[in-house]
Amino acid sequence: MYWFRSGNPIDFLPWLAVSFTWIIGGWLLATHVFSLEKHERLIIGFGVGLTLYLWLTNIMGHWLNPVLTFTLPGLLILFLGIVVAWRAKRPLINKEDLTIIPVLAISACLFAYFLLVQRGLGIFDDRKNLSVISLMANGDIPPHFYMNAAYYHAYHYGSQLLGASLMRLGSMFPWSAFDFGKATYFTLTVILVGLVAKRYLKENWKAVVVALLFIFLSGTRYLLMFLPSRVLESLDPFVQFQGVSQDIGAPYSKALFMDLVIGGDPPNRYPFGFLNGFRHPLIMANAGTWSYAQVLTLIIWLVAARSKHWLSVPILAILFSHLALTWESSYGLLLIAGLFSLAYWLINRSTFNLSSQRYLILAALISVPVSFLQGGTLTELMRNLLSGNQAYLQAELRGIEAGGLFSFQFPPALFSAHLGKLNIFSPQQMILALFDLGPIIYFVPWITSWAWKRFRKGDFVTGLIIISACVSALIFLFFTYDRTRRDIGRFIGHSIMLWNILFLVVLLENKQKQKSFRGIVGWISAILMFVSGVALGISQTSAISQPIISDNLTGLDAAISAMTWGKLPTEDLVMDTRLTWRATALSGNHTIALHQGKTLPAWSKLNSDPDIDGFLDAGYRYIYVDELWWRFLSDEERNALQNECIEVVAEVKDEEQYLFRRLLDLAECYQ
Question: Residue 328: its pLDDT value, please?
Fold first, then answer.
């Protein structure tokens, strides 16, 4: 049981019907609100329609029931698209838009490939993604914290809304909905990169080359394998392994030739020497959130300079706002870049006409208050600050005292998610950093110079993009975020993504550049970066051969989910007696297990010393039990949990392996 809770693909049709409304509506809006080329309108329309749908779903979810929440936005987008198109002078839909059939065929192949890969991976099928998708699909929008229903989820969740819609309307499981969403974002990113390249380069084959290479561009850590062993060993003392890299259990000189072992990985594990600690290639977009942030950034890039209708203001404002709900750092970087661009215009007013960007500027301004009201990280930050939440404020103060918030660092350093803090004044650590980053870093001056020249000639959007990349890199270099240190890597990830696209565009712009010394070195560098991604892609493709439900979940859990999801009173809490989050993902009901990152004493006590009155006093109505927890109970505790007042809501067994799952209802045990 992987795809559908009912086991019947027919139940996917309601989601397909609703998706048809926002696809057509988005297509109409993109066609008649923006001045787009015929090969751009359908793809950008899909992205615009999807984003409008997810954003409206989030807004309507504050007040409406789940079915209306996930249905009405699509109808509204279709209605709006028809009205705008009807009032326009051009035909409702231009048949020339459908000449991109080859692009649609490629998109279908990319989607199918990545969906099958994700079906075999469980790397990011974690408590956050699966639980948030399940909760929102069950009507909890904006979602409460998946580990403690007493608090709202103070984190971004814009990308997970697609998975929630697939669960509610398409009868999918949280893991299959999550994988479907990731495949959608991956495919859309690739095609949009091609459209950006076509915008600059004009020729189809060049756009295809850029899109293909972009999928795989990564660092070049593997080149260190060619160094003499003594040289490699001399680098070992300068590495402080972080996260899962610590589990390799070998010095860097040996780890370079080993595989990385992580939960939910493919059968052919990722070779550590081809990874890097700054940004994974797009082929490894296994979380979905970052790839959707790239989608939003690319759509803004493509439509910002093509606004011809006042309706572009709300559409652009929603694109910005949903980027804030999906990836706050990229949203903030684009706003900062916009301020720098405006400052430059004020100083050099004669350079270009800013009035052509009035819709973009107005939309960005509107998005700011919206971003603080719609839900997620920024909303909860504002809510707690305005309410004077003492526990929250004290936690923030502790973070400041410990250097946990953004703090200036000197000497500047690069934080690698694998290798730790790499000081730029340490030759050995800079060798590690530069090989991890790859040759792209050497071409940044060339890329920046090219983009800046376009900006000075009036290309406001290209200037916005390159300024955001430079600002992002400087933040990464001079600031730390020690509470979750690796999160500072989001900034360099934003920079590298934009640099990679522009690097390929500059390489392909004209034949003279390709034949120049710099062009030849550039192509060699691109090939070296391409090799890393291909090696990782080959490893990851092996996941197609091993479909799995999810990491830490089995077919028994899927069966329980099929029987119970959306059928329990949403106000009642569920306790998973072994994994704190699992029952929430399976049932769509909340739990209370953590507070400020620590397991609650009440949960720990009930886990080790179960008691019916204790469960009820803690607010749990439903208890999720598996054989591993059951085996460690005493006979007395087992008998207590078989009391006549307890109803077995759902139960599945694997008699051959002595496995089972059981959901218990304690409602009748109240005295």
Answer: 94
